[in-house]
Automatic annotation (TrEMBL):
Belongs to the polypeptide deformylase family. The active site is at E148. It comes from the Bacteria. Removes the formyl group from the N-terminal Met of newly synthesized proteins. Requires at least a dipeptide for an efficient rate of reaction. N-terminal L-methionine is a prerequisite for activity but the enzyme has broad specificity at other positions. It catalyses: N-terminal N-formyl-L-methionyl-[peptide] + H2O = N-terminal L-methionyl-[peptide] + formate. Its cofactor is Fe(2+). Keywords: Hydrolase, Iron, Metal-binding, Protein biosynthesis. It holds the Pfam family Pep_deformylase. GO terms for molecular function: metal ion binding; peptide deformylase activity. This is Peptide deformylase. The keyword Nucleus does not apply. Fe cation binds at C105, H147, H151. GO terms for biological process: translation.
């Protein structure tokens, strides 16, 4: 089932998400719905806060990057089969010289900006079976994970921009929060959420 994606301006996107356990209600269906929602919006990652749930859960499928001619053969191969569910993730280390990459977000459609991030991470997380993993990633996979991880920490990529860049996109962000935007996937705007 495709769920509406929460738009910029909704308070849930600024909350630090809570850990969950294997008794979380209908978790398998939720994960399945999140993948369906992400694919329906042509995304490569989706975090639970983006569908209105302040829980430490996000998904990544980097396979669309496997066709990117700008990446090395090795990177494209890594992307091809990279599909994972991250529950209760904690980034343990980030290292290396920061590099810029043009990022976007399903909750902030039509806004893309260069964001600086460190290239290597070490992350601990649980998979959908609640088995614990500690893994290291670098390059574009690390960046996609960092972007989704920020969501469960209540951080948006726009928070990482300079105050000058933020001023330049302020009007766009205001329009998104008011629902004044054309998109080809289901969204929920803050104005619709006020009654909660």
């Amino acid at each position: 089932m495709i769920l509406p994606i929460v738009a910029y301006g909704d308070a849930v996107l600024k909350k630090k998400a809570k850990a969950i356990d294997k008794d979380y209600p209908k978790l398998d269906a939720l994960i399945e719905n999140m993948y369906e929602t992400m694919y329906g919006a042509y995304g490569v990652g989706l975090a639970a806060p983006q569908i209105g749930l302040a829980i430490r859960l996000f998904i990544v499928d980097a396979s669309p990057f496997a066709d990117d001619e700008d990446l090395s053969e090795e990177e494209r191969e890594q992307m091809k089969n990279f599909k994972k569910t991250f529950i209760n993730a904690e980034i343990l280390e980030e290292e290396g010289d920061e590099w810029a990459f043009n990022e976007g977000c399903l909750s902030i459609p039509d806004v893309r900006e260069d964001v600086f991030r460190q290239p290597k991470i070490k992350i601990q997380y649980q998979d959908e079976n609640f088995d614990t993993h500690v893994e290291e990633y670098d390059g574009l996979v690390a960046r996609v994970i960092q972007h989704e991880y920020d969501h469960i920490e209540g951080v948006l990529f726009t928070d990482k921009l300079s105050s000058f860049k933020k001023r330049l996109i302020k009007g766009k962000l205001t329009n998104i929060s008011k629902g004044k935007i054309k998109i080809d996937y289901k969204m929920r705007f803050p104005a619709m959420s006020k009654k909660r």
